[in-house]
Amino acid sequence: MVGGGVRSPLADEQLRLMIALAIGIGPALLMMWLSLRRFDYPLAPKALFDDRRVFFALAVGLGFGVFASALTVLVASSGIGLILTLLAIALFESSFLLAYLNRRGYRGRFDTTFYGASLGVGVSATLGMATVYTQNPEIAGRPDWFAFLVPFSLSTSLALASVGSLIGYGTAHGQVLRYFTRAYLVRASHLLILAFFIIGGGDPGFSVALSVISLVASVVFAGVVYAFVYREILPETLPRDLRRTLRRWPGKAVKAKKPAKGSD
Known about the structure:
Blueprint: H1 9-36, H2 51-76, H3 82-101, H4 112-139, H5 143-172, H6 176-193, H7 195-202, H8 208-236, H9 240-257
């Protein structure tokens, strides 16, 4: 603060950064925890993934997100049109995830699916932070827009966690092209659903109702896809014997905690 109660430019920049960090990385970390918690102790007999690979993938995703955000701005200003821009962004993001997860040390490993989820949420965290940070100067003129940024970040985290998991599953099970195509269609569809929200973010005169509908539809779409990934793809990546062990494990844990009949 400076004399007269006026905030300094540095304080404003720090506040913008803190808000961007909270809104961008919060939903991403939530999605990573939700995706992996069932495959770690105590919900599993032991961790079914390597913590170091999980957090390294998260860090790589965060770093790539910076590059992806800059490229998104560049492509958006190229004049090729919104639809082509969104399709190109989806292809670029999906291709990077594939290039990372299809390396020799990750092929054929069931846990690659988990690292794909972590990589995806890392990308979403940076994309969310960049979007929030760049929108902050305009929030004073459109305070309603700030309320849109949290669900936008959540929607992006849901979508990219699903995209990363799908690509990771394809790499793990030797079905790379099949699941890459599915992942790309998910991300491309998600961005196209967000089209009206994206237009509204850059045009104060655009219909708020259309922006809201677009954003809500994207959250619903991303949530439905993630529910499928959570229920089918993540557990299905485990070998059959591990799936059986995981199904039996909670029952054994509960029985072990129950006292024997007639005991004091």
